[in-house]
Please model this.
Amino acid sequence: MGIKHKIRLGFITIGILLFLSGIISSLELARFNRATHNLLEKSQQSIEISKQMLDAVQEQNTALLLSITDTTRNVIYDSLIAKSDRDFDRAFHTAQNALRDPVQLEAIGTAFKYYNNIVSQVSDSTDITWFTDVYKTSYYNLTHSIKEFMVLIQQHTIDYTAQLERNAYRASMVGIIALGAGILLLMVFYFMLNNYFIGPVLQITKALKGYVNSRIPFDVAVSTRDEINTLKEYIATLITAHKKAKPQA
Model:
């Protein structure tokens, strides 16, 4: 293989390696960005849904308390209670559809069924004693379940963020390994140039200078079979021809 092809092959190999490392790093970075965006979006959506459920329960709690303490028994309280119930049910079903593991909502679903069963007991004779002794427990259980769900979502976000950090480290390691391989390949390429191109050229130059200045025999060993070896052979042939022609002169 000629010198030109060797040098070209070396540069092409280095270029391909750097190009592939750049592509791999870019793909890993894009995947990391998508995963981070999806994580934040789902986490924000889950927290927002949890807040909607919590707001609905609190609004229903307020309407229920007002309906008990207000002696007029205004029907508007019943409509507020019904509206809050629909809002909670809508948010709960949205959470079920959004989560890949609806089991996380089982505690909320169980607490909400018990809460609805207690609320259905409200009548014109319901007083504040029932509210504090019976209703309050179901209300606290439901709100506690919702808050626990919010904490669970936050914990999952933290855990998944840690996983993303490890993935980002692995993605950066691909680039580091590729960079290290590129540096190693450059060193090998430099070694090959020095031993198979620069070194032989310097030897030929030194030997030719010795012959011209001091008539030291031109003797250079070139291990390759390329243009450098051809150059050495032509120089040796030229020197031999010069020696033969000199006595005739």
About this structure: The chain is about 85% helix and 0% strand. The first helix runs from residue 3 to 69. The helical segments are 3-69, 75-98, 106-119, 128-214, 227-248. The mean pLDDT is 80.
